[in-house]
Known about the structure:
The chain is α+β, with helices and mostly antiparallel strands. 21% of the residues lie in helices and 24% in strands. The protein is built from 8 helices and 12 strands. The strands form 2 sheets. Strands 3, 4, 5, 6, 10, 11 and 12 form a 7-stranded antiparallel beta sheet that branches. The chain has a 5-stranded antiparallel beta sheet with strand order 1-2-9-8-7, with no helix packed on it. The relative contact order is 0.18.
Amino acid sequence: MRDTRQRAWAASFASTLLILTFGLVPVTNAADHLDSPLVAGNGAADITDLYAFSGPGGNGTVFILGVNPGAGVLPNSGTTFGPKINYQIKIDTNGDAKADMKYMFKFEKPSGGTQKFSVWRDGTWLANGKTGSDASLAGGGKATAGLYDDPFFFDLDAFKGAVLGNGNGRTFCDSNTTDFFKGLNISAIVLRVPNENLGGSGKDIGVYASTEDQNGNQLDQMGRPAINTVFNNQDSDQSDRQAFNETRPAQQADAGYRSHVKDVLTALGAADPQGLAGVLIPDTLTYKTGNMDGFLNGRRLADDVIDAELGLVTNGAITTDCVDNDSNFRDSWPFLAKAN
């Protein structure tokens, strides 16, 4: 009975992780799926991924925030940023899961194929720029934004066959291994900040991102990949996911989300569900400035987070899809691969 429940939860985890969290295109009707009802109709408000890693030499930190899953392909995901959406990268410097500093990007309406944007830190203006070009920040650092290749990679069809049992004949690491995300784009914000502006090298910080309306209402939020859609599936109308998106990290444990995580991890057979739930909630991406390691130390573009998380939450029952990164990431600014 326990094995049956674990397999069922593994299947639920798989489908949720891949189809919901990362905005995959379902096989029929070309419908899209975003992570909660509020952002389902507006890809510009939907956060696809968040990255935090050390730049070359380790003296600066790079943050990348993606939106518009399947940009220009999915019906509700365009190729521009929302002029009525504030894009925020938030940083916790003392471990209380509250934002001690906020980098905010504001975009104007598209004009002539580009969008002007401004960058702010804690209400102080840092730079003006436009998509496709670099902007130098007052006090050091650099920013840009635009359309790029989606850095995520995964073999969806093999997962459907091997884990979900849909009868397509596929299995992991077979001769038909394919990256479903190859050729898809996202809209991305790229920000580089000197470590001295974050408390110096060797500083432990927590990072999360949010999209907010002009009244400060949180539309979407994300720290580590997959937290919301994997662990919040109790309500058929996805209202629990919407509520999570509106709940700031410091409030998530008291709101019951740590218990949700523990229950799912227990059913999946993960080792130490309670301890792991305490790591995953509050939902922030933990990172040490200047440290060149990757996930779970921040997240680099080429980090295979699917392999890492599947092995972690299933206690080794599922370990890899044998798909490697397909993007031609750049070794220097802006690091992301060019749009397809």
